Amino acid sequence: MNYTPVVGLEIHAQLATESKLFCSCSTEFGAPPNSNTCPICLGMPGVLPVVNKKAVKYAIMMALATNCRINRRSGFSRKNYFYPDLPKGYQITQYEVPIAEDGYIEIETDGKRKRVGITRIHLEEDAGKSLHPEGKAEEVTSVDFNRCGVPLIEIVSEPEISSPKEAVAYANKIKQLLEYLGICRGVLAEGNIRFDINVSVMPEGAGSLGVRTEIKNLNSFHSLAKAIEYEIERQIKVLDNGGRVVHETRLWDEKKLITRSMRTKEEISDYRYFPEPDLLTLVVTDKWLDEISSTLPELPDARCSRIEKQYGIPHYNASVLTSTKPLADYFEQVAKLCKNSVRASNWVITEVMKVINERKITVDEFSVRGKALAELLDLIDDGVISQTAAKEVFSAMLETGKSAARIVEEKGLFRVSDEQAIREIVDKVIAEHPKEVKRYQGGKKQILGFFIGQVMKLSGGKADPKVAQRILQEVLDN
Amino acid sequence: MQIENALVKKVAALARLEFSDDSLASFVTEFAKIISYIEKINELPLEGLSPLSHPVEGVQMLREDKVKGSLSISDALSNAPSKRDGFFTVPRVLE
To answer: So what's the ipTM on this one?
Structure first.
């Protein structure tokens, strides 16, 4: 039997506000335990939450970026459950009417574009953090309430994702949007973005969806893909063996790379949602909405097509360069200052990204700034140095922080396009390789590349390869 | 709405409350009374009215995103029955 996987994602993103959603405590990550708390986020009696305007603004920005309809009137509810990291005994969230609904984003996998629907985006508060120290004599759970009340948006997708690859593309796009908007720090390792997934498989030809399972709190793209992959295979196995998939929440075991049953899902009514009596209707006025829309930054898709056209670079280059905002900013800085923007695009995605990935640093931490790289690239286009020599200069710039021009001068890397100098090298290469010369003259014209390579090598990468090729052909063909 | 022992027990479990079987019977009676009182609302003709999402008219005021001080760690923990190294501690919740 063939099955079609059906996957939906719920993404929790922490909003990069200074203060919490309902109180004025700091949202700083990594502060000493319980140092950013107050009577409101500790859930003490008699306190009143007051909504953070910037958190609402950020939620609206994400809603606009994902083509959602903004609800001009939305409300907050209490979601009731007991857990040590939830001091109030309820989470303030949006239930009946969220701030935004009915949007979509476009994703691209294997060159194919696909639209994935967004069901809703709602605002809610984060819970605290429970730690379960291992191997301690006293069997306790330690609780840090610093994270209590940090603003989150939950972005709920339609169940329209059909593979682990698409799920990663979708999650990546959401992360990219959050970063472009500057509304989320986007560090997965710090839990800024967390994924809940629901997975089911539909027998081919069946009209309705299969029973779904949920997996909560995945915090990397890798575990997102692995968990979906595992769960699809597990459910197919269950069904193929005549079994039934049970509707439940499963736990992702990061070490064993499996999902396992946690508990049967509590009925939704068990959360006993009811309107939060301490908060009034959240109203978004026309004026405010216009203000937010008009200050929305350029988004990745728009930037990708603009960069492609404006600098005349290939679509692939443009899409890699716009994958993150800092990378796109860096490229544009180089491209604006240098003569050859196609060369700039190639250098940024190969040489610059190689260093960034190897050193595990961010674009902003990369020491060769845009202006310095532009100067280096212009040396190639001005015919001062060869492409090969440029790579050597680039490494030296990384190590020493000196300018390209200075390194070229110190190392004497000026490109040799002086005919006489190259002719001498060509003669030497030909004299050293009589066998190859015979083969070439016997018709093996393709070994010309070998000779050019030898000339480049002997010249220390400084010879102009075009001149070398012309002289080689001249000498060999006569 | 029929109020049964099972419903009262479920509500008690959700609220983490424990009580004797004697009081269970009295809760069943009291719940029934309260619910039937509230159910009177259902007799109102409500066609064509939009749901009331909040009993209080008015618009939520918003505050600027400014950090103002928090409690000191010792003040935050001062009411905790159990604490250690700056953390609140509770009986272990994971097996």
So the answer is: 0.88
- Cβ A63 vs Cβ A102: under 8 Å: no
Residue A295 lies in a domain: no
Chain B: closest CA distance from residue A102 (Å) = 21
How many domains does one find in chain A?
Answer: 3
Q: How far is CA A262 from CA A73, A75, A266, B95, in A?
A: 37, 32, 11, 12
pLDDT in tens, chain A (478 residues): 789 999 999 999 999 999 999 999 999 999 999 999 999 999 999 999 999 999 999 999 999 999 999 999 999 999 998 889 999 999 999 999 999 999 999 999 988 999 999 999 999 999 999 988 776 666 889 999 999 999 999 999 999 999 999 999 999 999 999 999 999 998 888 999 999 999 999 988 777 888 999 998 899 999 999 999 999 999 999 999 988 888 888 888 888 888 888 754 444 458 889 999 999 999 999 999 999 999 999 999 999 999 999 999 999 999 999 999 999 999 999 999 999 999 999 999 999 999 999 999 989 899 999 999 999 999 888 878 888 888 989 999 999 988 888 888 887 777 666 677 788 888 888 888 989 888 888 888 888 889 888 888 887 777 778 888 888 888 888 7
CATH architecture of the domain B5-43 equals Orthogonal Bundle (1.10)
Query: What's the CA gap between A160 and A263, in Å, rounded?
Result: 26
Residues A383 and A468 in one domain: no
Same domain, A197 and A81: yes
Asked if residue A435 and residue A313 are part of one domain, the reply reads no
CB pairs under 8 A between A and B: 126
Residue A337 lies in a domain: yes
- Encode B53-81: b = buried (16+ Cβ within 10 Å), e = exposed: ebeeeeebebbebebeebbebeebbeeee
CATH of the domain at A449: 1.10.10.410
Residue range of the domain that includes A472: 419-477
Q: Is residue A188 part of a domain?
A: yes
Residue A352 DSSP label:
I
pTM of the predicted model as reported, rounded to 2 decimal places: 0.83
- HSE-up (13 A, CA, CB side) for residue A321: 32
Instruction: With beta carbons under 8 A apart, name residues in chain B contacting A282.
Output: 60
For A31-83, strand residue ranges (E) read 51-52, 69-70, 73-74, 77-80
Q: Which of B50, B70, B82, B90 to mutate to test the interface with A (most CBs of A within 10 A)?
A: B70
8 Å CB contact between A37 and A146? yes
The shortest C-alpha distance from A67 to chain B (Å) reads 25
Interchain proximity A279–B73, CB inside 8 Å: no
In A, which residues are within 8 Å of B91 by CB distance? 139-141
